[in-house]
Amino acid sequence: MRIGIDASNLRIGGGITHLMELLRAAEPEKHGVSRVVVWGGKEILNKINDRPWLERVYEPALDRALLWRLFWQSFRLPDLAKEHCDILFVPGGSCPRSVRPFVTMSRNLLPFDTVERRRFGASWILLKMFLVRHMQTKSFRKADGVIFLNEYARATILNSIGVLKGRLSTIPHGVNPRFFQAPKTQRGLSEYSFARPFRLLYISSIYVYKHQWHVIDAIARLRRKGIPVELELGGPGHGPSLRRMRKAMGRFDPNGEFVHYQGSIPFSKLHHHYNAADAFVFASSCENMPNILLEAMAAGLPIACSNRGPMPEMLGDAGLYFDPENPGEIEGVLLQLLEQPEMRSKMAREAYERVKIYSWERCAEETFSFITDILRPEKNRELAGKLQ
After folding, report:
1. N or C: which end of the chain has fewer CB within 10 A?
2. In what order do the strands lie in the sheet with 54-58?
3. Which candidate, 92, 88, 195, 97, places its Cα nearest to that of 145?
4. Is 286 exposed, middle or buried (0-12, 13-18, 19+ CB in 10 A)?
C-alpha cells in the first residue's frame, strides 16, 4: 500500500509542524503501508527527517507564486498520484477534482467564519479566503475522508457546509517532547519588582484576529497601577496588523520599557522562550487548533486565554478566560492571575497533566489508521472485480 502526501499548500506555521511531526512519529508499516511519497517545496522537505519508507520529491513549481502552485496541483498532481500512490493525503485542505481516492483535513477556520473574515476589510486576503472556502468546500464534499482537529472545528465546518458523504474523524495534533517542562514553583506578586518583573509571554503570528494591541493596552493598565509586569511578543507579522501592534507599543510604552517584540522565532528555539516566562497569554479570537497553546500547557505555565473558538475545549478548567477584544477584561483576568500564586500553581499543574493526551505518536497512529481503513474497501472492491 502506498500513500502520497500533497504538501503544496503547506507554507508556514502549524501546517509544516503537523506534517513534520506526523512523519517523525509515524510507523506506517504497522498499517500495511510500504511507501509514503511527499511532494513539496524545498523549505518543508528540508524539515522532514529521513525515514526508510519515505520518499521526498522536490517540485520546483511549489517554490514559486500561488498561481504556479495551483497549476501544479491541478494539472501535475493527478498524474503523479495515479502513478505513485494508492491514496492521496491532502493536509492543506484542497484537492483537484480528478484525484481519487483522497483524504483531506480542515486546518483553517478563517474562511468559514464570517465575523472574523470581515476584520480584513476589502483586501487580497479577504478575496483569498473566499477562494479557499470555495475550494475547500468542494474538496470536503468530494473527499473519501475528512480529518478535523477538534470537535469545535468539526461542528463549525459542518454547520457551514452541511453533511459530508465521506468518512469523518477528529484527530488532534500533538506536542513535541522538548516543550515539556514541569511547572515551576509560583512566587507571590510581592517578590517581583520593576527591576525584575513578572514575565508574560504571547507567541503567535501578528494578525488582526490575534489582538496583541489589546493585550498591550491591558499590560499598560497594570503598570499604571504599580504592577511589575512585562510582556514578550513573538511571531511573524502581517503588514497592517504588525503596524497596528507597533503603533500600540509606541502609544502605551514609548520607551520600550515593558513590551518587547522578538519578531519571528525559529521553531527550534521556541521552548527556550516558554521556559523563561512566568505565565502565558493567548488572545486569539479565531483558531482551528493552536499548537502554541498546547506548547504553553506543556511548558507548565499558568495561562490566561481567549474564551473564543476551541480554546476552552483544549485548556478546560486549567486556565482563566477573557474576551480578547476587551482590554479591561484582559487586565482584570491578568491581575487575578498575578495576585493568586496558589491558583497559578494549580492551573499550571492541571494544564501540564491535561496536555499529555496530545501526542504526535497518537496523532500519527490515528491518521494512518484512518487513511488505510478508507483505502481497504477500495482494494477489496478492486479484488472482487478481478475475480468476477
Report:
1. C
2. 54-58, 35-40, 2-6, 87-90, 102-105, 145-148, 167-170
3. 88
4. buried
CATH architecture of 2-174+359-387: 3-Layer(aba) Sandwich (3.40)
d(CA 286, CA 278): 25
In whole angstroms, what is the distance from residue 216 CA to residue 218 CA?
5
Segment (H or E) for 103: strand 102-105
Which of 151, 183, 175, 188 minimizes the C-alpha distance to 350?
Answer: 183
Do the domains 177-357 and 2-174+359-387 match in fold? yes
pLDDT tens digit string along 68-121?
A: 988 999 999 999 999 999 999 999 888 887 888 999 999 889 899 888 888 888
How many of the other CB atoms lie within 10 Å of CB of 260?
14
Confirm if 286 and 173 have CB atoms less than 8 A apart: no
pLDDT tens by residue, 307-346: 998 999 999 999 999 999 999 999 999 999 999 999 999 9
What 320-329 contacts at long range (C-beta under 8 Å, 24+ apart), as own/partner pairs, is: 320/347, 322/283, 324/211, 324/214, 324/283, 324/284, 324/285, 325/211, 325/214, 325/285, 326/214, 327/214, 327/215, 327/217, 327/218, 327/221, 328/218, 328/221
